[in-house]
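As promised in the previous annual report, we have extended the structural survey to additional targets. Below is the entry for SulP family inorganic anion transporter.
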Amino acid sequence: MKDLLNDLKQDLPAGLVVFLVALPLCLGIALASGAPLFSGVIAGIIGGIVVAIASGSPVSVSGPAAGLTVIVLNSIQQLGSYELFLLAVVIAGIMQVVLGYLKAGIIGHYFPSSVIKGMLAAIGLILVFKQIPHALGYDKDSEGDFVFVQVDGENTFSEILNALNFLQPGAIIIATLSLLILIAWDKPFFKRYTFFKFVPGALVVVALGVGLNEFFKVAFPVLALENDHLVKLPVASSVNEFIGQFTLPDFSGFSNYNVYIIAFTIAIVASLESLLSVEAADKLDPYKRNTPTNRELKAQGLGNIISGLIGGLPLTAVIVRSSANINSGAKTKKSAIIHGLFLLISVVGFASLLNKIPLACLAAVLLMVGYKLAKLSLFKSMYALGWEQFVPFVVTIVAILFSDLLKGIGIGMAVSIFFILRNNYKRAYYFMKEKRSEGETITIQLVEDVTFINKGVITLTLDKLPLNSNVIIDGTKSHNIDLDVLEIIHNFRETAVLRGIKLELKGIPAFKGVAGH
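The corresponding structure token record, generated without further manual editing, is:
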């Protein structure tokens, strides 16, 4: 009981902050996806409660993902009905559960650290760039539209330029004061007091935003923000109207080939995004815990099955919510569950009150989340690791900024693999010269794993060995020597005699493709 109370001291405030971050994102992603607004909230609730309980991750938070908006939008248009799309979501969830049992989660361990850190920094920068217009009172683009080329035809940077032509003084005042409060809230001086430790700064700025805007309506109407600049949570006037916001899948679509194509696409993309997000969340986790990835796929699959059955969007683990959770001091998965419960309670009983929240104050919260993900210190630390880490890191950031998450990750992975191959090419062996009684001896000590990638450098090295030299090729420490490399070595054995080279092979297996061996 004592441990539970200690956890709640950190998890309750964190869950509240994640709820405030998640609410506009759930609505914005639904809007950007061309789906009913309530579908985003459903996915947020299921991700917060069901997935969090089933998952083994202590800090990641799931919900509707910005990375799926284009897929969802195109899929609904292709299938012709939202109900058919929901069936695809259910089938995608089943596929994810199967992938979990097939242990496909192992893929999550093969993303290079430089790419994961680049993804975190890119998401941080995207949050900053995307929230600037909202902080200035320009709310034409939905909160969940994170791709470079937006749904409205603008891009990330042209949206900022447009915002400068439509400044809302009221929003700027609210956003500026909110940022100042959030910055002060993190200072060690304030953290000495219990109030500042337990009450999240995000809650204070939301209360400030609502209060200021209500004050503007009375005292300075010219500064007041209207509905277009406030949260837009669907409000049900009766129980029947609330129940009517849930949508059932169209099960007659089981014979529709396109449903399965879309389901497969959602399953693969959602699984990759989830694995990337939990890997990134583990890196941010101050306790350095590791998420069981196969269990994560099963949890995400269960979440998508339930979300699809009751009218929700497909969901994934999401790094924006997860980083907000970690930065707010979350200790266990209870914070994610609390955020889901807050979403549920809000749509049931407090929708009208929440619709008074200005997007400008929520923009300030997300700006702080973005800043913490893309701190200058991260760039400095990656640069200090050398070009082999820094280049994939920067390429990943740029690629994500100008495309979307998965394309950017793919480009970053390609660059990272190039450097891995380049290193393997260069590090096939150790080259040593030593004086012996019979003269100078050259030893080529092969590394543990010699692959076909190393063919080129080994061939060049053997070709450049001096005439009439003593050479030892030592493979005793190698666990694996590729057949292509063995062929080169044994071919060299045949030609070494012609060059007057006295050759000794240690631990080099025979190669049947060469005559006489």
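The chain has a mean pLDDT of 91. The longest strand covers residues 429-436. These points will be discussed at the next consortium meeting with the crystallography subgroup.
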